[in-house]
Write a structure and sequence with these properties.
By secondary structure, this protein is an alpha/beta fold. The chain contains 12 helices and 11 strands. Strand 8, helix 4 and strand 9 form a beta-alpha-beta unit. Helix 3 packs across helix 4 and helix 4 packs across helix 5.
Amino acid sequence: MTALRKLGQVGPEVFPLGLGCMGMSDFYGARDDAESIRTIHHALDRGVNLLDTADIYGPHTNEQLVGRALAGRRDKVVLATKFGMVRDPANPAARGVNGRPEYVRAACDASLKRLGVDHIDLYYQHRVDPHTPIEETVGAMADLVRAGKVRWIGLSEAGADTIRRAHAVHPVTALQTEYSLWTRDVDENGILATCAQLGIGFVPYSPLGRGFLTGAIRTPEDFDADDYRKTNPRFMGDNFTRNLKLVDAVRELASARGCTPAQLALAWVLARGDHVVPIPGTRRIANLDDNLGALEVKLTARDMADIEAVFPAGAAAGTRYAEAVMGLLSR
């Protein structure tokens, strides 16, 4: 039986891999709600109990999808959603951030309605609002906990100082931030260490590099016309070619160890600590089962050194987001 991992000092026990649901509704091309719901149900049947969504995905449609998938199964799930990022209908590429207390309360009520539930297990601030003190935002989130609408609170892409300030107002159960072989900022900026020191669970999103680390993406033409990765710096021009060489090196290491590139990449993330719970996203059952195979991959110190040799920190070419979005990170 797979051992569970605990998020935060007083948070929930969850399966070592969660399921990111964003790509079922947004950003990664065509959607198929029926297939996505089957995948969610399959994940629950396999023991996965952490589902991750957000109000911005769709926007709103991903929460509705997850809500439909949870019908009759709510008690099996640690349900996580997020607030705080705002999309401009007139400019879909633009992003705003809102952490004002009145917005926090309204966003929570709206998410509860879309999800069709009476409480959210883990409620994240999606991005830190530079115009609202974190103490005010987290104070409003704490009010939601006291009201019974939220069980635990989290932050996403917050800097180390912000995490400490937030945690002083109300215990932060989890921090969600991008982390993978090709995105290791948290190792260098103190965020991962801060989470460990404060007893905060760490939930890496995009642990497979938005699918690149699976080895399945070979050319930019593999993406649908509306797939946002077409405009992501790491998937463009010379960056794509350079990053593909890194992925091919991972593929060779995985083959030598009898696993897939995705399993090797996820096993590397899982090995970073027992408080680390990655949430790879997929809408396909076959990919989900492949990801879960990572739990059978036990990396030795030699394995970790071999991975580091071919894919050291900072090796990925290109920033992880376009310039405008990079400004929203690690505040």
